[in-house]
Design brief:
This protein is of the alpha+beta class. The chain has a domain of 74 residues. The strands form three sheets. It has a two-stranded antiparallel ribbon. Strand 1 and strand 2 form a beta hairpin. Helix 1 packs antiparallel against helix 4. The radius of gyration is 17 Å and the shape is globular.
């Protein structure tokens, strides 16, 4: 009987994003790969990320607490009303992608966090 061996895969230890803002300034975002396991920075990538939450998808029914959701997306309070328990859907991902912050800019990227307070 053959035994399965673990592949010798390189490990990502850090993710650095260099972002050019609409006003010409630059910003650097550093992501921890332990906390982020998917990253989207284009319309197409966000659609792929959204499919993760589709009915029948691997994360169908995933939820976030209001506190966790607003910590990540403070500008999104108007999207969730008074809900304490936020159901992640492709539509919500798309709305987050197109939701402007106070300065008028929309997100440069969306990151799927590995930790979900409500259901893993």
């Amino acid at each position: 009987m053959a035994t399965r061996t673990t592949p010798k895969r390189p490990k990502i230890t850090g993710i650095t994003l260099n972002v050019l803002m609409p006003d010409g300034t630059s910003r650097i975002h550093t992501l921890d790969p332990i906390e982020c396991d998917a990253l989207a920075w284009s319309d197409r990538g966000v659609k792929v990320l959204g499919k993760f939450y589709e009915k029948g998808g691997p994360a169908e029914g995933k939820r976030m607490t209001r506190e966790d959701f607003l910590r990540r997306f403070p500008q999104a309070a108007k999207l969730i009303g008074k809900s304490q328990d936020i159901l992640m859907t492709p539509e919500l991902v798309e709305r987050l992608w197109n939701l402007a912050k106070e300065d008028g800019t929309t997100p440069a990227f969306l990151c799927k966090h590995t930790i979900n307070v409500i259901n893993g």
